[in-house]
Design a protein that fits this description.
The chain is mostly helical. The chain has a domain at 36-169 and 187-224. It is built from 14 helices and 4 strands. It has helices spanning 42-58, 72-75, 83-98, 100-103, 107-118, 133-169, 173-183, 226-238, 243-256, 264-280, 287-290, 298-310, 312-315, 321-330, and strands at 36-39, 193-198, 206-209, 214-218. The chain has a 4-stranded mixed β-sheet with strand order 1-2-4-3, with helices on both faces. The chain is globular, with a radius of gyration of 21 Å.
């Protein structure tokens, strides 16, 4: 899943051998503080919607099947645009077609815009929001049109999706979070993870920015519905927890003289988040199985088999993380001498 994370790996090699509980009677017991807080904001939805409209104008169709809409009627226009509305929308769209800051070509720009728009008052005019002036003007041009023609449907869709996800999360939130943190040998962020619902959320249907840890999920993506949405939520938050695992993989590969694939930690996250939900939510079929992540090529299939053999025992509490990582790395190709 798409995310925005620092590119530098954390190189400290501190690994603990925490066991991951498979079942627990306290899954539904409220945590001392919530792990997630949910939000549905006008300005972030408009910003992402303009990105989507700009992609359509350019003829870009890069969305994965999991990110495609499940409710096209919820995102269609309620009526045609008047000439003044069409002019305002077109001028705003041109900014998102051509202006580098609006295009979001760097992680830092995306993160900065995302955080500031997510925190903006829905009924405000962005004057107190520290964003690029050209982007602000484009959003202000588009806002009246969006409110009148699209926002009621988008707002309804987001609220219904948040209610559904909260309902799925509540019975097992404590155990799901424990499974992820213990599996990755990491601590949950000090503050609850903010989760923004957006009708569109990148070509992948989801992304994470940090700091602070902030997850944006498409309420309209096929891969974010039902228990799949629960898994994607854990997966995106899990990107912020990968430091210890990344460090372990890097240090172990260097020590053993092995080539470390760039995608390995991400595939391990796919596997871990999928197993978390499958463990505590009966009948769940993990995202990677549903959308063919393991079938995309021969390497992915080999990694799945390797994780089932060497990583699964760690998730079941039968193997320390350091031992699991060593066994996985030992199966990787050797570096050329």
């Amino acid at each position: 899943m798409c995310r925005i994370v620092p590119t530098a790996l954390l190189l400290s090699f501190a690994i603990t051998s925490r066991a991951v509980a498979q079942t627990s009677p306290d899954c539904a017991r409220p945590a001392e503080r919530p792990s997630f807080v949910f939000h549905n904001g006008f300005w972030l939805n408009l910003h992402n919607f303009l990105h989507r409209a700009a992609k359509e104008r350019r003829g870009v169709n890069d969305e994965l099947p999991a990110a495609m809409t499940v409710a096209a009627h919820d995102t269609a226009r309620t009526r045609g645009l008047t000439p003044p509305e069409r002019d305002a929308w077109e001028r705003a769209l041109q900014v998102y077609l051509t202006y580098p800051v609006a295009l979001g070509n760097t992680d830092s720009i995306v993160s900065r815009l995302n955080e500031r728009l997510a925190g903006a008052r829905d009924d405000g005019d962005l004057r107190d929001v520290d964003i690029d002036a050209t982007v602000r003007q484009a959003l202000l041009l588009a806002a009246p049109v969006y409110r009148e023609v699209w926002w009621a449907a988008h707002d309804r869709r987001n609220r219904e999706w948040i209610a559904s996800l909260r309902g799925l999360l509540a019975p097992s939130e404590t155990c799901l979070v424990r499974f992820i943190t213990q599996g990755l040998s990491a601590d949950w962020p000090a503050a609850p993870v903010t989760v923004d619902a957006s009708v569109y959320a990148s070509w992948f249907g989801a992304y994470m920015t940090q700091p602070p840890v902030h997850v944006t999920l498409s309420s309209n993506a096929r891969g974010n519905q039902g228990t799949l949405g629960l898994e994607v939520l854990l997966h995106e938050a899990g990107h912020a927890l990968l430091g210890p695992l990344d460090s372990a993989l890097v240090a172990t590969a260097a020590r053993q003289g092995r080539l470390l694939p760039r995608e390995l930690a991400h595939l391990m996250l796919f596997y871990t988040a999928g197993e978390a939900v499958r463990t505590f939510v009966p009948g769940h079929v993990p995202y990677a199985e549903t959308f063919g992540v393991w079938k995309q090529n021969a390497s992915a299939e080999r990694y799945r088999a390797l994780l089932e053999r060497e990583w699964q025992p760690h998730l079941e509490g039968r193997r320390a993380l350091a031992d699991a990582v060593a066994r996985i790395v030992d199966r990787l190709p050797r570096q050329a001498m």
